[in-house]
Design a protein that fits this description.
Helix content is 20%, strand content 24%. Strands 12-11-10-7-6-15-14-13 form an 8-stranded parallel beta sheet. Strands 16, 17, 18, 19, 21 and 24 form a 6-stranded antiparallel beta sheet that branches. A 3-stranded antiparallel beta sheet has the order 1-2-3. It has 523 residues and is an alpha/beta fold. Strand 11, helix 7 and strand 12 form a beta-alpha-beta unit. The protein is built from 9 helices and 24 strands. It has 3 domains: 56 residues, no CATH class; 343 residues, Alpha-Beta Barrel (TIM Barrel), CATH 3.20.20; 83 residues, Sandwich (Immunoglobulin-like).
Length: 523
């Protein structure tokens, strides 16, 4: 068997200048020779546009550089016919600070990284034939949506987001749409033995041995706990042959275009539209939909009409900006936290200021992979505090295993965060960022109550003897307390600072771990 070489990859490189010209130095493969990509020549016609650079190889091994615009919109915005999320939906989103994000699907059967292991650019045919037939073995008999919701409740979470469809096109919900898919002939529980045939199916949970609408079960369970309902949906579909303009699609065709293949092109757009209408119609009120992926502006006119239709179905639902651009209500920094509440990467105007929600993982991958290295529980807790102080919300991804259960280490971390929030939730939930600096020094974060009557100072580490807060003044005659302790604390406004004294007796009443919140009535 000849050695498989991927057609294209994501790359990192170093920007440098040579002979007055800009270049990026990178490699096509780890062990390959370095390449120098001439940036000014490549990007000559792209000023003011969003650029994606693809690096391909010819059969000879010679590189091909290609740039494409992924942000230009053929129509002006705002659209007078479009309504953003309602005031009530926007405020609810900002109130719900901490949520459970879950990536779960057929990839969980083998403990694989979600979808990306089936990217046709990076794997041989025999492998993606194995991947795309994993649904035949997906049988999560220990799944219990009520247990999921109870775990989130113990963690102090206020909403959840679950993948309805990831980039591999497999649906966790009972979609009535159909697509061409692969099916392995033979023993259903042997994913690598037996011939593979094409079939025409829903490519959903209804085609698995389990045959349960996971989204319906989860929505019902979390709604009983009065939690926010969030659904993840990928615009990408690497299984559907009608999506084969994408090099990662298993049927990739570089000559596939809307002009040459109009019926198939319309079919992939219609299928997304139909699936989204199902989700926006069949599962009750939704609080947010977390879109992922993009069509790179290839069908913006159609996408715009789809989003307008969805908005009419769910006027109180917040929509993320991935693939929806200026029609979105919030953006979703992935694995990074904005530097402050005025970070230009999130500071955009819509009907409301663009809301933002950090999404990050409890371990390393978005889906469950055995023997993961987990993040430190206190690092995750401080992430929540920092995000809240800056005005964002936090969707922490905690993936279930293939059987529907969660690893004990995940549960332990969530319960630790839940115990902290049981004491300090008032300083987090339904708060807003203060005017001015969100942080003092390295270890004090500020939030404020929604009615602007109280400031909360969250002190990382136990505060010995006294705490001095610059630019904070307490109301004369008011009481300052540490959340979790009933006794009022001595304090004074002195020299432009608020000085709070920590009596020695408090050392025996420490209410929680790691970070401690002071409730201050504003002057």
């Amino acid at each position: 068997m000849s050695k498989y070489t991927p057609r294209s990859e994501n790359h990192k490189g170093v920007l440098f200048r040579k002979d007055g010209q800009l270049f990026i130095r990178t490699k096509f493969m780890r062990d390959a020779a370095e390449l120098e990509i001439p940036m000014e020549e490549l990007l000559e016609d792209f000023e003011g546009k969003g650029v994606e650079i693809d690096l391909y190889t010819r059969k000879t091994g010679d590189p091909i550089f290609k740039a494409k615009d992924w942000t230009s919109l053929p129509e002006e915005f705002p659209d007078p016919d479009y309504e953003y999320c309602s005031e009530a939906g926007y405020e609810k989103f900002l109130d719900q600070k901490f949520g459970l994000f879950m990536h779960w699907g057929q990839y969980s059967v083998l403990g694989l990284t979600e979808s990306w292991t089936a990217n046709a650019q990076n794997c041989p045919r025999y492998w993606w034939e194995t991947y795309y037939t994993l649904y035949q073995s997906f049988n999560p008999t220990e799944f219990c949506a009520d247990e999921w919701a109870e775990m989130a409740e113990r963690a102090g979470m206020q909403f959840f987001i679950l993948t309805t469809k990831h980039h591999d096109g497999f649906c966790l919900f009972d979609t009535k749409t159909k697509t061409k898919a692969l099916r392995r002939i033979g023993h259903l529980h042997n994913t690598v033995v037996g011939p593979v045939e094409e079939c025409y199916i829903n490519y959903s949970m209804m085609d698995t041995p389990y045959k349960v609408d996971i989204i319906d079960e989860a929505v019902r369970a979390f709604r009983k706990k009065n939690m926010g309902i969030g659904l993840y949906f990928s615009h990408i579909d690497w299984n559907d042959p009608n999506f084969r303009w994408d090099p990662a699609n298993r049927s990739f065709d570089p000559d596939y275009t809307p002009e040459k293949n109009p019926d198939e092109w319309k079919a992939f757009i219609q299928r997304e539209r139909d699936q989204l209408v199902e989700l926006f119609t069949n599962y009750g009120p939704l609080d947010q939909v977390f879109f992922d992926g993009t069509w790179f502006g290839l069908a913006w006119k159609e996408m715009k009409e789809i989003v307008k239709e969805l908005r009419k179905l769910q006027p109180d639902c917040m929509l993320s900006d991935r693939g929806t651009g200026p029609m979105a209500d919030f953006t979703s920094p992935e694995r990074w936290i904005p530097a402050d509440k005025d970070d230009n990467r999130i500071k955009q105007k819509r009907k409301h200021p663009l809301a933002w929600q950090v999404c990050d993982v409890i371990a390393t991958h978005w889906s469950h992979v055995p023997d993961e290295k987990y993040k430190d529980k206190n690092d995750l807790l401080e992430m929540l505090i920092s995000i809240t102080a800056k005005g964002g919300t936090f969707a922490l991804n905690v993936p279930p295993m293939a059987n529907g259960k969660f690893p004990q280490q995940s549960i332990d971390i969530l319960e630790y965060m839940g115990r902290w929030l049981k004491v300090n939730g008032e300083a987090i939930y339904a708060t807003r960022p203060i005017k001015g600096d969100f942080k003092q020094g390295d270890n004090i974060y500020f939030t404020r109550s929604k009615d602007d009557k109280f400031i909360y100072a969250i002190h990382v580490g136990w505060p010995h003897e006294k705490v001095e807060l610059a630019h904070v003044q307490a109301k004369t005659g008011s009481t300052i307390k540490m959340l979790g302790i009933d006794e009022a604390l001595p304090w004074e406004n002195a020299g432009g600072k608020l000085v709070i004294t920590i009596p020695p007796a408090l050392n025996k009443q420490i209410p929680c771990e790691y970070a401690f919140s002071f409730k201050i009535e504003k002057a």
